[in-house]
Amino acid sequence: MKLITCPINGTRPVSEFVYGGELRLISDPQALDDQTWAEQVFYRNGAPGIKKEWWCHVPSNTWFIAERNTATDETLNTYLYGEEDSR
Amino acid sequence: MTGFRVSPICDAMRLAQRATSEKMAKPSSEESLIATEREINQMRFAQGNSSGHSTTLGITDLSFLTRFGVKGAAAAAWLHAQNLPIPDAPNRWLPLRGGGLIARLGFNEFLIEDSINSSIAPQLIELSQHPPAKVYPVLRQDAAIALGGSLILDLLAQTCSLHFRALNLSECPVVLTTMVGVNVTIIPGEIYRIWCDGTYGVYLWQTLLNIIEEMQGGAVEFEQLLPL
Predict the structure, then answer these.
(1) Contact yes or no for B212/B56 (Cβ under 8 A)
(2) Domain for residue A84, yes or no?
């Protein structure tokens, strides 16, 4: 059974979680040309590696950030958004 | 006009009652031997009457208890102003003076439920008609269940992916997890309280009852489980 540690609810089976996509910082669309903006909206980084991702613990609706190695599917760290520095 | 509500689990009891009476070829007038319908807090609900099962494994419907939900950044301060104790961390609960409980479901979300004898939730519903800023009442139409008996942990081992034996009950934990695929809130203790979205009530009740009956338990009257 794969496990993920929710920062609020503790370690739970992966079946209690849903994936919310990679954490991406979106630039101001007014400051970009159309081509760069379109790339930000439509392109995703599919290369394997350690990524910051949004995950949600569904029973409590807790959204948090997980740092996950997408090549090995290891979750390295989890924390609430904005609390990375406080850890 | 006096209206009444119907427990989300009532239909499950009626279906089970009908199936049993058909199986036993009993006339409908004798269905009351299998379950009885009652009304408390303007809610109609069905109760099993398998007396004696509460010691091994008993399940009962507590959806009729009045409850109140609230969320928002100022919810804790507002509840404190209403003289309610506030659990100091998410996923903790506290008993209320006069009966009932308050559960902290997150940093800014709370569930308050009355006991059979208290009426705090209706007062809070009334007070929240014009809430201050950052206080948002939440409509709670949960299916509420209680489990009791010596085989509770065996039942939970079959239906949840959480190690309940490892919980420290002195910390008054609230567990938000999934049970037979349904998102539930559980408060463990001498009896286990379970809340889920009312629309899943029939499924959750029927699934739990099937397993409970395999374990020689059954549906019981709430008085057998709930301390009055």
Answers:
(1) no
(2) no
Give the pLDDT confidence score for residue A85 in this predicted structure: 67
The C-alpha atoms of residue B197 and residue B77 are separated, in whole angstroms, by 27
Closest partner residue to B106 (CB to CB) among A12, A13, A60 is: A60
Chain A: residue nearest B91 by CA?
A: A9
Does residue A10 sit within a domain?
yes
Is the pLDDT assigned to residue B134 strictly greater than 80? yes
Fold classified for B67-138 = Alpha-Beta Plaits (3.30.70)
Give the pLDDT confidence of B25-78 residue by residue, as tens digits: 654 444 444 467 888 988 888 787 766 666 799 999 999 999 999 999 999 999
**Using CA atoms, how far apart are residues B15 and B113, in angstroms rounded to an integer?**
28
Instruction: Tell if the CB–CB gap between B161 and A58 is shorter than 8 Å.
Output: no
Q: How far apart are CA A5 and CA B194, in angstroms?
A: 23
Q: Per the CB < 8 Å rule, is A58 touching B178?
A: yes
Q: How many CB pairs under 8 A join A and B?
A: 32
Per-residue pLDDT of A43-85, as tens digits, reads 998 999 999 999 999 999 999 999 999 999 999 999 999 988 6
Beta bridge partners of B94: B102
For residue B203, the surrounding DSSP H or E stretch is helix B201-214
CATH of the domain at A19: 3.30.2270.10
Using an 8 Å Cβ cutoff, are B207 and B40 in contact?
A: no
Q: Where are the domains of chain B?
A: 67-138
Distance, CA of B61 to CA of B182 (rounded, Å): 17
Q: Residues 50..69 of A with a Cβ closer than 8 Å to B: which?
A: 57-62
Of A8, A15, A61, the CB nearest to B178: A15
